[in-house]
Specification:
The structure is a homodimer of 408-residue chains. With 408 residues, chain A is α/β, with parallel strands linked by helices. Chain A has three domains: 70 residues, Orthogonal Bundle (Arc Repressor Mutant, subunit A); 133 residues, Nucleotidyltransferase, domain 5, CATH 3.30.420; 163 residues, ATPase, nucleotide binding domain (Nucleotidyltransferase, domain 5, 2-Layer Sandwich), CATH 3.30.420. Chain A contains 13 helices and 13 strands. Chain A has a five-stranded mixed β-sheet with strand order 6-5-4-7-8, sandwiched between helices. A five-stranded mixed β-sheet of chain A has the order 11-10-9-12-13, with helices on both faces. Chain A has a three-stranded antiparallel β-sheet with strand order 1-3-2. In chain A, strand 10 and strand 11 form a beta hairpin. Chain A is globular and about 70 Å long. The N terminus and C terminus of chain A are likely disordered. Chain A binds a DNA duplex (30 and 30 nucleotides) through helix 1 and helix 3.
Chain lengths: 408, 408
DNA sequence: ACTGGTTTCTTCGCAGTGCGAACGAAGTTT
DNA sequence: AAACTTCGTTCGCACTGCGAAGAAACCAGT
């Protein structure tokens, strides 16, 4: 692994690697496609395509899956991607829990495990929990480690591009000195990729959710904290210091309450779960003694409770200020809202869009769709696995080479 | 030119093209470097490097420039980039003027022309002016058209990636139906590249200004309008609809004055030249009857005039709100301020930085430098030329092939 | 059923590219 | 002056993709 000004030089082998990756990606995207069709689209010669496909088939990544429909002559042999050829592990370290998923090469969850875990202040315990859950997932599906591509980790902290295992000492002081990547790499002897949770939520949306097929998208995670991640030209954009996407600390109300970060009127103090619950206690509170939950707000809003709807309205309006700024500055093709509260759908989208319309240029809005996520509660962990998938689809050598003998 | 999912396949020729471009870029960046050094850095074999350099030399882009210092053996032959091998034309269409520059391949201005021109409402006149000035520049330096790489144009409007010659009908309604790229392409029979002025200011800073060597930068142009451009991974980022960087219409004061765009409290209504001049009239106004100019504010502030300083302070504070949002969202490595008013330097940077510090996460600020531009008033036009240079350095075939006979 | 045309995929020789070893050229050091 | 180092070139080799030719498989019309 070269660092810095990687001199991306090409020799004969590199040429093959490049074309091979291109083909692999095409087969992955299309799910099934004939050699002839590949040749037409890539403008590679039929002979070359055949040679490369044979390579890929031999490595177990693709296989023939019967004949397609004729176009007036011999019927084509369809090549399909073997989604189950390898597995990937995705880990989400949340604020108070750890979720681990085992996925195939199509982002499908084959097994998953979740455990409550205080992540902020307990690095040792967290790492132990992660190790246990990962092993459980592997065991449950009887997946040998050599058929696992790698391990992706979502961390509730910015991740600096130059030290992708270390978490931010400002956000998670207790993790100072720990290197998640190294720790898990030594345990499982697998490649480990780490990134911020919102960034991975964005990646998941880009691959499996609202952003399918697109290359520019912003994901906003509405939870205890408010984070966002940008996909730019198909890649996670991390910024110079890895803190791109900290939308939660944009000041939207200079007269707002003070925030933990030392500033005033941060978005998170107004629409973070804490603020929503607090507001719910004021408006809906008399019903019960204990504090309402986000889930109750969602259910209330769905059921037509005016107080809950009012809370969602307020959320949409505040969020609109930040999203308007986002549209003007970045002009993404899609903005996806995630997090539990986003499941109210249009109840949130309507006031949000109205708020954005009042604050963003119409030209910025014209090409941007604002939607809520359709992925479930494991989307962040799946996004972590996707990070590994993305890397492997670009660099085939990341797939564990099984020097296939004759094992069918 | 393929559009859409360009299948970037590689054959033997493509391999050569890729390595050739890599070498060309290295020689361009280093200005002078030996074959041996290139081989070491690229990990290409010495024989390959020699072959490619011979190619480049034959095409006139590089040449031997004597011997370097020995490293304990034979002295290396230094290869240098021929900055004067070709010329590039850069055009800035401002609000009320047109500037044309003729540069070499190092961004140096060899000739320039400026003319007053109402651009907004007079497409015909503007195109005519551009044509005249371009021809004047070519004539002045006796540059034959075949030694010009291409023509870059900066437009005071967002430029949609899918129709790079058409200007936004919302911002410049009079230009509806005009295609700048096509118009100039037919006149001069040269490749034409069009982009937004702030984007090209950003590109200029990245190549010749504060951002040299970096790959992620945001440029903010403070003028009649407030625009910004992002360079991400070395490329202009245009967003989904070409309107990325419209920082001028971020709402920073919900109680602020109405803006032309229909919103309230837009940055531009508070710190655009118009607002600054207006404020100057209030504070400094009694001196003369006619409205003060931005230049007078700059001079006043430099001379210590408290009113002028107060204006600059206010500018810094408002701008800080937007920049803080920018840092949190994008976390660029450098923010460069351009436009006439930015020439006051620290007088603006100090209040700006203070304002940002109050509103952005310290982690976002940690890796970001905020500076003022050191490039002159032709920076936008030079940026337009740079767009052409960038394209040609990536794709050597854009350099007009002079099938060199024996002309030294 | 048969024939001609079409499409798919493979085979095989060719051309272009980068590599590595060997070599000569040019300097430095002892 | 001799030994060593570095630079750049030459030449045969291995690998890649290409193109022509051909075999296989299929469709449509008679």
């Amino acid at each position: 692994m070269k660092v810095g000004t990687a001199a991306l030089t090409v020799d004969a082998a590199g040429m093959r690697a490049q074309n091979s990756s291109l083909l692999l990606n095409m087969i992955w995207r299309e799910r099934q496609i004939s050699r002839a069709e590949i040749a037409r689209r890539t403008e590679l010669s039929p002979s070359t395509v055949s040679a490369i496909v044979a390579d890929l088939e031999h490595s177990g990544l693709v296989r023939s899956i019967g004949a397609g429909v004729s176009r007036g002559g011999r019927r084509p042999t369809l090549i399909g991607f073997r989604d189950d050829a390898f597995s990937i592990i995705g880990v989400e370290m949340g604020a108070t829990h750890v979720t681990v998923v085992l996925t195939d090469l199509r982002g499908r969850v084959r097994t998953h495990r979740t455990a409550a875990q205080q992540v902020r202040n307990d690095p040792e315990g967290t790492l132990k929990t992660v190790r246990t859950l990962v092993q459980e997932c592997l065991d449950a599906e009887r997946v040998p480690r050599r058929s696992v591509v790698g391990l992706g980790v979502a961390a509730p902290s910015p991740v600096h591009p130059s030290a992708p295992g270390k978490l931010s000492p400002l956000i998670l002081p207790a993790w100072r000195g720990y290197d998640v990547r190294e720790a898990l790499n030594t345990t499982f002897d697998l490649p480990v990729f780490v990134d911020n949770d919102a960034n991975l939520g964005a990646l998941a949306e880009c691959y499996w959710g609202a952003g399918i097929g697109g290359e520019d998208l912003t994901y906003i995670k509405l939870a205890t904290g408010i984070g966002s991640g940008h996909i730019i030209h198909g890649d996670v954009y991390r910024g110079a210091g890895g803190t791109a996407g900290e939308i939660g600390h944009i000041a939207v109300d200079s007269a707002g309450p003070p925030c933990l970060c030392g500033l005033r009127g941060c978005l998170v103090t107004l629409i973070g779960s804490g603020a929503l619950v607090e507001r719910a206690r004021e408006l809906m509170g008399t019903k019960g003694r204990k504090a309402p939950t986000v889930r109750e707000i969602v259910e209330g809003a769905r059921a037509g409770d005016p107080a809950a709807r009012q809370i969602i309205d307020g959320l949409g309006q505040y969020l609109g200020v930040a999203v308007a700024g986002l549209l003007n500055l970045l002009n993404p093709a899609i903005v996806v809202l995630g997090g539990e509260i986003s499941s109210v759908g249009d109840l949130l989208l309507d006031p949000l869009r109205a708020s954005v319309r009042k604050r963003a240029l119409s030209t910025s809005m014209a090409e941007t769709r604002i939607v809520t996520s359709a992925l479930g509660d494991k989307s962040i962990a799946v996004g972590a696995a996707t990070l590994v998938l993305q890397a492997a689809l670009r660099d085939r050598t990341l797939f564990p080479l099984q020097h296939v003998g004759k094992s069918a």
